[in-house]
C-alpha cells in the first residue's frame, strides 16, 4: 500500500527584516551588507518582512525582487492588517504570516536539556529542539549551535550561537569565553563587530530586552 503525503505543523528559524519606513532600497541594501558579512549564515536564508511601520504605499513586487537580489529568500510578510495590502502582497508571491500562531509555536512544552560534552567542530550544527543546550567544550569558528531554549557554553564560543530559535524571548546565552561570529536570541542578532571590546574573550550573559540584545559580564 502506497503512503500518502502528510501535512504537519512545524517550527523553523526565520530572520525578520523590520521596515522602518517605505524606503525599500535602504532596507535591501542593509540585507546585502549582512549577507556579505556572514554569507554562511544569511545567503539563501528565508526572511520575513515586518511592514508594521512601512506605511500604506508598499511596492511588494519591488520589495520581493530587492530581497532576492540581496541574496535572501523572501517567504512572507508580517504586521499587515490591511486587506488591500494583504492582497497586493499575495499577488507578489508573499505569504501572510500570523504572529499569533508563531507565538503559540514558541510556547511549546520544553524537554530535558541536551548536553554536548565533545568539541563542536567547524561545519557542524547542533540543534536542541524544544529544550536548552549545554556545551561543555569549545565551539569552533564555522560551527553553529541552536536551541529553542537557553544556551550554555563552558568553553570558548567562536562559532554561531542561536538561542530562542522558535521565538522564545526569555531565552538567554551564557558563555565562559565569548569570541563568537554571531549571537542571536529570538531572531535578534549581533555579528562579531557589534560585540563591545570589553566583553570579547570574557564570560558573559546575553539576554533580550525590548527586542534588543543586552550583554553583561558573567558573575562568577
TrEMBL record:
Keywords: Cell cycle, Cell division, Septation. Gene3D superfamilies: 2.160.20.70, 3.30.70.260. Transmembrane segments: none annotated. Coiled coil: none annotated. InterPro entries: CAP/MinC_C, MinC, MinC_C_sf, MinC_N, Septum_form_inhib_MinC_C. GO terms for biological process: cell morphogenesis; division septum assembly; regulation of cell division; regulation of cell septum assembly. NCBIfam families: minC. Belongs to the MinC family. This is Probable septum site-determining protein MinC.
Amino acid at each position: 500500500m502506497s503512503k500518502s503525503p502528510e501535512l504537519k505543523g512545524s517550527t523553523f528559524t526565520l530572520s525578520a527584516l523590520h521596515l522602518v519606513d517605505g524606503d525599500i532600497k535602504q532596507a535591501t541594501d542593509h540585507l546585502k551588507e549582512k549577507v556579505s558579512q556572514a554569507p554562511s549564515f544569511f545567503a539563501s536564508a528565508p526572511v520575513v518582512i515586518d511592514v508594521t511601520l512601512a506605511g500604506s504605499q508598499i511596492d511588494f513586487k519591488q520589495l520581493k525582487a530587492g530581497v532576492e537580489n540581496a541574496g535572501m529568500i523572501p517567504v512572507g510578510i508580517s504586521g499587515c492588517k490591511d486587506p488591500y495590502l494583504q492582497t497586493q502582497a499575495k499577488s507578489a508571491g508573499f505569504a501572510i504570516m500570523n504572529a499569533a500562531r508563531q507565538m503559540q509555536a514558541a510556547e511549546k512544552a520544553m524537554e530535558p536539556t541536551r548536553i554536548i560534552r565533545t568539541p563542536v567542530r567547524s561545519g557542524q550544527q547542533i540543534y536542541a529542539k524544544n529544550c536548552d543546550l549545554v556545551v561543555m567544550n569549545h565551539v569552533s569558528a564555522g560551527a553553529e549551535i541552536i536551541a529553542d531554549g537557553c544556551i550554555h557554553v563552558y568553553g570558548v564560543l567562536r562559532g554561531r550561537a542561536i538561542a530562542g530559535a522558535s521565538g522564545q524571548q526569555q531565552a538567554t546565552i551564557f558563555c565562559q569565553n565569548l569570541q563568537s561570529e554571531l549571537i542571536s536570541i529570538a531572531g535578534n542578532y549581533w555579528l562579531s563587530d557589534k560585540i563591545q571590546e570589553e566583553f570579547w574573550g570574557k564570560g558573559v550573559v546575553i539576554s533580550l530586552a525590548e527586542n534588543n540584545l543586552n550583554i553583561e559580564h558573567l558573575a562568577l
